[in-house]
Every structure is written in structure tokens, then in C-alpha cells.
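Regression test case RT-17, inverse folding.

Input:
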């Protein structure tokens, strides 16, 4: 029992160290980029956020129907970001994305003063650290400390978990929110929690905030409950299906409410619902299959998705590992239905690793992979020109692979047989 307590204590210390080290790293990055945009965080888009926030702070959050002016006089890094927007769209008022990150930039400008980036960046860093703390605490409510520590280690070693934490673009907010959401899904489905008002509020607000920030993660936001639910239940009865449907519906309601509000903003700014509809339709069409110059983009969606999976994903910005090899290793491991590995670390105690898998685990991994692929397949032009951002969508696949492996592994501490017992 003493050894077991020590393992748990060590695991909790590891979790704390991970959070402290990642937070310290990003505080350093925040101060390093206190007077300039961050390439890793998306410098061009970040410049738009900073300038849009400055105009919100000066002109009010309801100016331009609440849409950001991403040029804002071009005082900050005029060679980057939205100076080309006016050439293409005849206005620097940014209508193609929800205004969440730009509005937050306006809040920071009000609090910190215009272009005080060292101060700005501490807010998303604070959210990132807070999300890691909440994520860890929620994991500890569902998993043993050792398993929770292993999951924390697995996400900490991939750069994308923390490298945008100091950024001001929407990815710096969406992943921290997503981490807390995933941990809450584990509790909800593993322990078969009742869908009460607290879960309704949390899931609805999660969807609403994600919709306030971006269109890009619509499938990750609305569908990620499916692989988590499948890991913990076969979904072979009405009650389990109903619980999953409630999660998906509630998150989707929050998300699409934010999208509807953004569309209303665009209508108010344009002064015409038809004009706004035509503009957004044109943008979605272009992002699917247009070169930007009116020509059809000649590239296969699945080919692009697998190229990103095999090449962009392994970059030092994202996972650093070879994702196809990782996928192959996971699937091979899942083929093993049962296994036992015994390790003698110190006599007379032994550690016994037990493994048990089922066919359903393949569905878990493949559903997570498909959801990670969906935006890449459906918005191939947009993805092609912004590959370094969209490889982040594979986080769901990576996380579910790690979670599935850990949940199918049990760690037991046994007393090793004595010499007398062996002789018998």
C-alpha cells in the first residue's frame, strides 16, 4: 500500500510540474513577443487581431455593427495582415470570421493600453494555464493519478498543446476550451452522469464560445463527443444514444447561435440580407474549391488530407511524431485482445501491466480520425493555403488514441512469489 501511495504522489507531482513548466515557457514567450507579432501564434492573423482590437478600443465595440476594422490606420506592422483585405473586398471590415478574438483584443487594449502586447498576451496564457489545471483536476476525478499523469505527459510533449498559448489569434483560445470540454466528456460518459442543468450550461457555453471565435472547428466542437461516448459505451441502448444526442445538440445550439449572431452583424453592416448571404456564400465556395483568382482548384480533398496527416502534422509546430506510423502502431496494439507484462522493479513487489482491447476501440480511433479530417476535406482551398494551422485538427485523433490505450491498460502491484513458493 505504501508503494501505491507513493506512485500516486509522484504522478500528482508530475502533473504539477507539467503545468508549471508549460506555463513558464509561455510566459517567457509572451514577454519575448511583447513588441512584435509571434510567427508560431500566426503573425499575420495576429496583427489583424491587434489592429482590430485597437479600433474597438477607440471607436467602441458596436462600431461597424460590431465587426473589426483589421487595418485600423495601419499603425501596427502595416506590412502584415489585412492591408490586402481592402484590395480584395473593398473594405477592411472583416466579415468572414466571427469577431471573438478581435473583440478580446479590444478588451486587452482597454485594460493594457494600445499595442502593449506583453500585457495582452498574459490573458491567453492565463487561460491556457487555467485550462491545464481544470483538465488535470477533471482527469483525476475519472482516472487514477498515474493514468492522469500519463495523459498529461502525452499532450505536453507535443508542441501544439502549448505553443500558441501566448498568441492572440483564435487558436490560442479554442484548444484550452477544447481540453476542458474533453475532460468533462470523459466524466459524463464514463460515469454515466445525468444530463442536468450544469452540464447543459457548460456544453452550451462551450459551443457558444467556440462559435464566437471561429468557423474552422465546427466539426471538432459538435462531433467530438462521439468517439468519447463510444470509448465508454457501445451505444446499444436508447438511454446512451439519448445522452450523446443531448450533448451534440446542446453544443451545436450554442455554436450555431454564435454563428447566427455573426450573420446578423454582417447583415446590419451590409444593409441587406441578400448581399450578406451572397458574400458569405462566395467565401465558402472559394474556400472549398477556388484558387482565389476564379479558377477551380485542382486537388483531391482526400489526397490533401493525407498529405497533411503524413507531412505537416509531424512538423515541430504540431506533433513532431510521424502520425501515420503512430496510427499504425495504435491499430496494431488494438489487435491484441489481451496481454500481461510483469516487471520486477524492487523485490518483493512486481508491477503487472494488463491489457484488454475490443473491436469497438477501432471505431473510437477511426471516428476521431474522420472528425479530424472533415474540415480539411470540405474546405480544401482554405486548408491548402493555411496548412500550418489546420494540422492542429488532428489533436482529437491523437488525444483519443492516447486515452484509448491508457483506458485499456491496468496497472497492478503484486507481491512476487518467494523462492520457497517457486520451488513448490
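Golden output:
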Amino acid at each position: 500500500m505504501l508503494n501505491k501511495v507513493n506512485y500516486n504522489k509522484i504522478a500528482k507531482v508530475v502533473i504539477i510540474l507539467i503545468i508549471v513548466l508549460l506555463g513558464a515557457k509561455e510566459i517567457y514567450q509572451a514577454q519575448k513577443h511583447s513588441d512584435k507579432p509571434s510567427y508560431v501564434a500566426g503573425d499575420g492573423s495576429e496583427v489583424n487581431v491587434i489592429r482590430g482590437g485597437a479600433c474597438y478600443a477607440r471607436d467602441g465595440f458596436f462600431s461597424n455593427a460590431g465587426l473589426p476594422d483589421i487595418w485600423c490606420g495601419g499603425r501596427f506592422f502595416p506590412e502584415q495582415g489585412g492591408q490586402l483585405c481592402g484590395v480584395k473586398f473593398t473594405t477592411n471590415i472583416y466579415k468572414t470570421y466571427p469577431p471573438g478574438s478581435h473583440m478580446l483584443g479590444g478588451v486587452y487594449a482597454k485594460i493594457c493600453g494600445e499595442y502593449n502586447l506583453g500585457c495582452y498576451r498574459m490573458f491567453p496564457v492565463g487561460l491556457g494555464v487555467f485550462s491545464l489545471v481544470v483538465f488535470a483536476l477533471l482527469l483525476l476525478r475519472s482516472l487514477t493519478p498515474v493514468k492522469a499523469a500519463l495523459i498529461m505527459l502525452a499532450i505536453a510533449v507535443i508542441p501544439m498543446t502549448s505553443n500558441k498559448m501566448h498568441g492572440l489569434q483564435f487558436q490560442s483560445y479554442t484548444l484550452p476550451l477544447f481540453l476542458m470540454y474533453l475532460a468533462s466528456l470523459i466524466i459524463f460518459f464514463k460515469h454515466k452522469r445525468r444530463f442536468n442543468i450544469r452540464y447543459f450550461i457548460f456544453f452550451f457555453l462551450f459551443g457558444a464560445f467556440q462559435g464566437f471565435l471561429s468557423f474552422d472547428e465546427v466539426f471538432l466542437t459538435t462531433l467530438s463527443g462521439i468517439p468519447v461516448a463510444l470509448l465508454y459505451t457501445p451505444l446499444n441502448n436508447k438511454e446512451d444514444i439519448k445522452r450523446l444526442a443531448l450533448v451534440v445538440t446542446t453544443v451545436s445550439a450554442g455554436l450555431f447561435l454564435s454563428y447566427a449572431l455573426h450573420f446578423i452583424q454582417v447583415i446590419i453592416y451590409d444593409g441587406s440580407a441578400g448581399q450578406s448571404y451572397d458574400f458569405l456564400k462566395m467565401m465558402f465556395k472559394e474556400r472549398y474549391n477556388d484558387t482565389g483568382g476564379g479558377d477551380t482548384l485542382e486537388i483531391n480533398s482526400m489526397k490533401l488530407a493525407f498529405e497533411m496527416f503524413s507531412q505537416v502534422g509531424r512538423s515541430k509546430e504540431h506533433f513532431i511524431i510521424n502520425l501515420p506510423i503512430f496510427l499504425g502502431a495504435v491499430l496494431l496494439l488494438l489487435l491484441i485482445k489481451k496481454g500481461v507484462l510483469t516487471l520486477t522493479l524492487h523485490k518483493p513487489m512486481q508491477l503487472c501491466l494488463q491489457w484488454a482491447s475490443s473491436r469497438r476501440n477501432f471505431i473510437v480511433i477511426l471516428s476521431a480520425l474522420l472528425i479530424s479530417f472533415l474540415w480539411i476535406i470540405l474546405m480544401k482551398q482554405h486548408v491548402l493555403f493555411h496548412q500550418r494551422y489546420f494540422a492542429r485538427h488532428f489533436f482529437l485523433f491523437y488525444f483519443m488514441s492516447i486515452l484509448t490505450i491508457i483506458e485499456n491498460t491496468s496497472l497492478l502491484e503484486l507481491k512476487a512469489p518467494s523462492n520457497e513458493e517457486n520451488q513448490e
